[in-house]
Design a protein that fits this description.
By secondary structure, this protein is mainly alpha-helical. It contains 18 helices and no strands.
Length: 483
């Protein structure tokens, strides 16, 4: 072959290789360990990590949430004021602005002072009117919420995930993969902390909070159900990371091994949380991880047989573990014989009728439930949540809140449908498709869990939900070779 012919052949091969790297599967492999995140990505990672560690206390443990709010404000300063710290970030996308505004709309409106002729005509205000009349303050302007301090505190808590939604919408595809690394890393640390909590090593409780679900693995959360959702998010995020490593079509034995070990550890931790709904919803997480990895599989029949064998091994292992007292304790929780949620829902529904259609104010669930609690169910415990986020929002936000929530849900459904259509194209990136599946899977889990619990009242879970919604948007920052 002549030298000119060899040159032409080499040029053609290089051209074909370039074409594959720009539109083929090779672009799906986004290394998230061998490259460094840019400054803007680092700050977003810090926001997510801090929210997962400090945002799980709830209303009974407000100190860590206050620290989280201060740290979030400090991190936002360079994100807004410094162009150097914004490297790796694109512009804030309009849908993120709209959703953030809708999220904060109700508590802001509920804090606007109203003249006496308006607020005294609201339902459920007769006792309040009589009380402040004793100090001649019944002519004062008052907001719609019955507890301005509680509503303002709730507003501050809602600002953090709203800000995170705006910033994550600015990230590149690889930058969002880094956030999944944070979710997996913090969840792994929470499982390690949970082992100390279960063993009570050195006689300590090993919890950040004075009030928490004792006797169960809660990690950085105060509520075992919130910890369960953290681990479900980590399972989904593990699938995203594995997909980003497998996108080049090569064999990745270490990647597969690490993914299986991580998911197995998260599943064991999930079981030890004792969260009945969380354990049940693990099927959704595993199903979506399967959707992520299915296009990457070469010998799919062998994988199906392998999964069947793994399920059989888990059944046998489960039968052996049934003899452990800690396992029997978790299984015993699946009995509904003494379910207190029914009474809470009945009291919440009664309270809704007392303040309908305007609501009592965001964050007022405790005084409203205490006032509505029936005498036959009163005991030494204090009701702090309705154990149904949908009912609780209806009580606190009323008809205006239902309308705003409906708009948010419709908007998110539109973004999800648009994202699904985008990643269904033959040339779509596997990493982008996995991120969309992570978003839809986690939001579906939260929506279902909210029927029997209050996941969106946790700042940690609200932060991950904000990340999930932002991932439905196309990456705003350009993809670079070094991120």
């Amino acid at each position: 072959m002549s030298s000119s012919a060899r040159a032409i052949k080499s040029s053609a091969q290089a051209s074909r290789s370039k074409g594959r790297s720009s539109s083929g599967r090779n672009t799906d492999k986004l290394p998230v360990v061998t490259t460094r995140p840019l400054p803007g990505t680092v700050l977003c990672m810090a926001l997510v990590g801090l929210a997962m560690v400090l945002g799980g206390g709830g209303t009974v443990n407000p100190l860590t949430e206050m620290i989280l709010q201060v740290l979030t404000a400090l991190i936002m300063i360079p994100l807004i004021a410094s162009s150097g710290w914004q490297r790796g970030l694109g512009p804030v996308q309009a849908p993120a602005f709209i959703l953030a505004g809708l999220i904060l709309l109700i508590p802001v409106l509920q804090l606007v002072p109203l003249p006496p002729s308006i607020w005294q005509a609201l339902p459920g205000r007769s006792v309040e009117i009589q009380s402040i009349a004793l100090i001649q303050a019944d002519k004062s302007w008052m907001p719609l919420t019955m507890s301005p301090a509680r509503t303002f505190a709730s507003l501050l808590a809602m600002i953090c995930p709203a800000l995170l939604l705006l910033q994550v919408s600015r990230l590149s595809l690889r930058g969002r993969n880094w956030l999944c690394m944070v979710v997996v890393g913090v969840a792994a640390l929470s499982v390690m902390l949970g082992v100390l909590q279960l063993s009570r090593t050195a006689g300590f409780e090993w919890s950040l909070y004075s009030q928490f679900s004792q006797g169960f693995l809660v990690g950085f959360q105060a509520n075992r159900n919130a910890q369960a959702d953290i681990l479900l998010a980590a399972i989904l995020a593990t699938g995203v990371i594995a997909t980003s490593r497998l996108g080049d079509g090569r064999h990745h034995v270490l990647t597969w091994t690490g993914m299986i070990m991580a998911i197995s550890a998260f599943l064991v931790g999930l079981f030890m949380t004792g969260s009945r709904t969380g354990i049940t919803l693990s099927a959704i997480s595993l199903l979506f991880v399967g959707f992520m990895l299915w296009p990457m599989l070469r010998k799919r029949a062998a994988v199906v047989y392998g999964l069947a064998g793994a399920v059989g091994l888990m059944i046998i292992s489960g039968g052996l573990l049934l003899q452990l007292q800690s396992v029997q304790k978790v299984i015993g929780r699946f009995s509904l014989a003494h379910e207190a949620r029914w009474d809470l829902w009945a009291d919440t529904w009664y309270a809704i009728g007392q303040v309908w259609p305007y609501g009592s104010g965001i964050g007022t669930i405790v005084p409203m439930l205490e006032a509505a609690e029936r005498l036959e169910v009163v005991d030494a415990t204090r009701p702090v949540r309705a154990h149904n986020d949908w009912l609780e929002w209806m009580l606190e936000a009323g008809l205006p809140g239902i309308i705003v929530l409906g708009l948010i849900l419709l908007f998110v459904l539109y973004l999800a449908a648009r994202a699904i259509i985008s990643v269904s194209k033959p040339d779509a990136s596997a990493s982008r498709r996995a991120q969309v599946q992570f978003s839809i899977g986690f939001l579906l889990i939260e929506a279902l869990h909210a029927i029997v619990d209050y996941p969106m009242r946790s700042m940690s879970l609200a932060a991950i939900a904000a990340v999930a919604v932002a991932m439905l948007l196309n990456p705003a920052a350009p993809q670079r070779s070094h991120q």
